[in-house]
Design a protein that fits this description.
With about 280 residues, the protein is of the alpha/beta class. The protein folds into two domains: about 100 residues, no CATH class; about 160 residues, Rossmann fold, CATH 3.40.50.150. Helix content is about 50%, strand content about 10%. The longest helix has 20 residues. Bound molecules: S-adenosylmethionine. The site of S-adenosylmethionine (SAM) has 23 residues, from helix 4 and strand 2.
């Protein structure tokens, strides 16, 4: 039965996505679908009482402890991180920051907001020139390149999971004559190294992770005695949820929730000029 329903579901998703990519879906339809997805997620996440809400939270926390550091690490690569960089250069701002930005006032441009957020990370982590820095899940190097350019005596190491991201960052270093950057392509859940850092950052990568105890245990070995870890993690203000919510098979719900992982990727990439993603994981 499940297989029978899965086939038309897959075909519908494929059709919708190819229409979206060919710009055949009017904005009004995309907005409607996005609202529908948000509505489903909110109805799923908000529980009828504080006790139920707390119980869901505790179950979630417990389930994370039973899981590996990360699961399905190849899927996001295919969905976003190995999509050609030329696409992201069209959709993102100058810094190619693939995470939330800080719009301090209505007149801020995307470039202003990217820079404001990058600056805020440095300020809040009390970064000093000359320190050793690690950025875990560095994407196309928004923070790595910002720090390496502004703090020329810092040695900046980045970890990303995509060869196209590494190639882009290294090209930028050549163009800007930066010699203080090193990039590793690795799955953080398996990566090991003998090194320690004054400042470790992770910007919107923790959303991809599951077992935070093991992840933080690993990161702690890379921190100097007085080192600091700065994490920017986006989440819902009340309830936690997995990117793809495992739930009892319910075709109507599955259609909408399952679709969100694919649609959200494309929608956020298509409409991300100045976006701030508060609800759905990306
Ligand atoms: C939302 S992006 C944020 C990128 C970057 N920090 C920024 O702010 O522009 C998440 C990043 O996490 C990285 N990532 C996701 N899963 C990972 C994994 N298992 N191992 C290493 N990096 C991972 C991806 O390479 C991706 O660039």
């Amino acid at each position: 039965m499940e297989g029978l329903i899965q086939m038309p579901y897959d075909a519908t998703v494929k059709l919708m996505l190819s229409s979206l990519e060919r710009n055949l879906l009017p904005d009004a339809v995309v907005r409607r679908l996005t609202r529908l997805l948000l509505g489903v997620r909110l109805r799923w996440g908000y529980k009828a009482s504080a006790e139920l809400q707390l119980s869901q939270l505790l179950q979630f926390v417990h389930s994370l402890k039973e899981m590996p550091i990360a699961v399905q690490t190849e899927k996001p690569k295919e969905q976003h991180y190995e999509v050609p960089t030329s696409f992201f250069r069209l959709a993102l701002g100058k810094h190619l920051k693939y995470s939330c930005c800080y719009f301090s006032d209505k007149g801020s441009t995307l470039e202003d907001a990217e820079a404001a957020m990058l600056e805020l990370y440095c300020e809040r982590s009390e970064l000093k020139d000359g320190q050793t820095v690690l950025d875990i899940g560095c994407g196309w190097g928004s923070l790595v390149l910002y720090i390496a350019s502004k703090y020329s005596n810092c040695k900046v190491t980045g970890i990303c999971n995509s060869t196209t991201q590494k190639a882009f960052i290294e090209d930028q270093c050549r163009d800007r004559q930066l010699q203080n950057v090193e990039i590793h392509v690795a799955d953080i859940s398996k990566f090991e190294m003998e090194a320690s850092f004054d400042r470790i950052y992770s910007i919107e990568m923790f959303e991809h992770m599951k077992n935070y105890r093991d992840l933080l245990g690993k990161i702690s070995k890379w921190m100097k005695q007085d080192g600091r870890l700065f994490v920017h993690h986006f989440c819902h203000k009340v309830f936690p949820y997995h990117f793809e919510v495992p739930m009892a098979f319910n075709p109507s719900l599955l259609t909408v929730v399952g679709f969100d992982s694919l649609l959200q990727t494309r929608v956020s990439a298509c409409f991300c000029s100045g976006y701030s993603r508060g609800g759905l994981a990306g």
